Amino acid sequence: MSTLNTSSAFPEPTIVPRAEHGISRAQISPNALKVLYRLKDGGFAAYLVGGGVRDLLLGREPKDFDIATDARPEEVRSLFRNCRLIGRRFRLAHVRFGNEIIEVATFRAPHDGAEDEGAGELSEEGRILRDNVYGTFEQDAWRRDFTINALYYNIRDFSVVDHTGAMADIAEGRMRLIGDPQVRYREDPVRMLRAVRFAAKLGFRIEPASEAPIFELAELLFDIAPARLFDEVLKLLHGGVALETFEQLRRYGLFRALFPLTEQALAQEEQSYPMTFIARALENTDSRIAEGKPVTPAFLFAVLLWEPVRLRTAELMAEGMAEIPALQIAAAEVTSEQLRHVAIPKRFSLPMREIWALQPRFAQRRGKRVARLLAHPRFRAAYDFMCLRAEVGEGDPELCTWWTQLQETDAAGQQELLQQQATAEPARKRRRRRPRKRARKPGPDA
User: Would residue 70 show up in a list of annotated catalytic residues for this protein?
Assistant: First the structure.
């Protein structure tokens, strides 16, 4: 199927009545319903929109409930005392209910329909710099990114409004970009990441016309702010399908724009374990998310950047540097370069580097060093990292076994393991200090 037309003459939308779709108000956040009803009672249009509608139709539990309306941000704020306006590039109203935020966006229009100078702004390359051009309901639907994100649930009659053929795309499991893909991706290159994320998350396929430009335009991501890409990386890897997402990012050439040093290392490596190492970590992440367990970005970033750190450490050691200082320098260099592409806040980058720095210390299994390592706040993450390395053949399996036994036994058992380790290790040869030769004092005949 070809891409959609965004001409000014919009086709009539399809109205799916309540009896013909599976969305119930019982499935919608009570706070979102409060916002919808108050907007409606205030005389404004009020629609649940986007991913929330899509997920409900697919029988999934939505993560967020976003609302679209013809009320301007200031008008939304006047209706809700618990409302805060945010954003300059894309002005939004956030209505807060405790820990839940309901996002309310005013209908947008194409930039060529802007009445206020400065409301919308595009770069020379066609990238959206400011997007506060308000418009009609129809315009808002046709300017959204993908058809499956352009569905609206109308609180007035509980119908679903489909302007772009999204219901058919959902039925076919198809990701389709609205408009000319070249133009839409250039407007916002992050849409390429969103295409991969939604396709992997929903098990959909990207239709050919929307897929083809990604291979050509992946380089545009190099110009996106690193802080914004950090948020996108978290969405990509914390969606429960991190492994599938990673594979698709590499297939389309998008991973290189996010982690160029890692992509370079993976492309050069002959061994299979670097790829297996990342794959196993992402599988574990997906399993933890499926079980409702927490995952930390620090560990994921440590995994994704480990191969360039490991290779740089080996280079420095080949030049004669000791392992620990070599690892420290390699970690600093790789982190510094990575921050130019994807920002990593210090609350994650510092633990990430600690995970790396602790790796050599697992080989030190004598005396007080063992107790100090066990007490380290990053011990558990570093231990998991070390065992994962051993699992794929990049580390020593015996080390993982020993540290596992140490944690699973009692104090007496720990002492026995430490004693066995001390006995097994060859005694260190003591260096004999040669006495200094003192300079002879000159004699009287000198």
Answer: no
Residue 16: beta bridge partners?
160
Sorted by where each starts, the structural domains of the chain and their CATH numbers stand as 14-183 (3.30.460.10), 267-420 (1.10.3090.10)
Query: β-strand 100-106 against 66-69: which pairing, if any?
Result: parallel
How deeply is 387 buried, as exposed, middle or buried, from its count of CB atoms within 10 A (0-12, 13-18, 19+)?
middle
CB neighbour list of residue 243: distance below 8 Å, 6 or more residues apart: 279, 282, 283, 286
Residue of 140, 145, 169, 286 with catalytic role: 145
Mark whether 140 is an active-site residue: no
In this prediction the pTM is 0.85
- Known catalytic residue: 64? yes
Would you list the DSSP string of 305-363? Answer: HHHHHHHHHHHHHHTT--HHHHHHHHHHHHHHHHTTTS---HHHHHHHHHHHHTGGGGG
Rounded to an integer, what distance in angstroms lies between the CA atom of residue 4 and that of residue 9? 13
Q: pLDDT per residue over 333-385, tens digit each?
A: 999 999 999 999 999 999 999 999 999 999 999 888 999 999 999 999 999 99
Q: 216-228: per-residue pLDDT in tens?
A: 999 999 999 999 9
Q: Say if strands 120-122 and 66-69 run parallel, antiparallel, or are unpaired.
A: unpaired
In the set 55, 66, 70, 286, the catalytic residue is 66
